[in-house]
Amino acid sequence: MLRGLTTISFFADDVAAAARWYGELLGIEPYFARPIEGTPAYVEFRVGDYQHELGIIDSRFAPHRPDTAGGAVAYWHVDDVEAAFERLLSLGVTAHEKPIERGPGFVTASVVDPFGNVLGVMYNQHYLEVLNR
After folding, report:
1. pTM of the predicted model, to two decimals?
2. What would the CATH number be for the domain defined by 72-133?
């Protein structure tokens, strides 16, 4: 039934500001933008080894927006969770969950981005095993 991750969608009141922030974090520009009334209502980045999509959507299109960050956490593989966590902190995020080892070969951490979305990072040995096949 579930065949793979297609798009992670984050919401922001200011999509242009979020696109700049994520562009700085990722070191790339969005490859796609859909403007409405001259400003972007949606931008999309292709990220990582499998070119997964990270979409930033104008908050006015959110089906539900809680008052606090929470819900499901999507984890992006990184080679060094501590370094990634420190880099994120340097870009002005709020710590959501500091790095923690979940078992041999699995370390996670998460932050709340400046736009209220939870961003997870993880070292995952299974990800690397699949990538190396």
Report:
1. 0.84
2. 3.10.180.10
Assign domain 1-61 to its CATH architecture.
2-Layer Sandwich (3.30)
Angle subtended at Cα 97 by Cα 27 and Cα 5, rounded to the nearest 5 degrees: 55
DSSP symbols for 61-116: G-S---SSS-S--PEEE-S-HHHHHHHHHHTT-EEEEEEEEEETTEEEEEEE-TTS
Contact 58, 45 (CB under 8 A): no
Q: Which two tokens stand for residue 65?
A: 């927006």
Task: Give pLDDT tens digits along the chain (133 positions).
Answer: 656 777 899 999 999 999 999 999 999 999 999 987 888 999 999 999 999 999 999 988 887 776 777 667 889 999 999 999 999 999 999 999 999 999 899 999 999 999 999 999 999 999 999 889 8
Domain ranges of the chain: 1-61, 72-133
